[in-house]
Amino acid sequence: VVPKSFEYLTCPQELYFTDCINLKKLDAIYASMMDLRMLSFAGCENLKEMPLNLKNLSNIEKLWFTNCKKVKIVHDVFERLISLNILIMNRCE
Question: How deeply is 36 buried, as exposed, middle or buried, from its count of CB atoms within 10 A (0-12, 13-18, 19+)?
Answer without folding.
Answer: buried
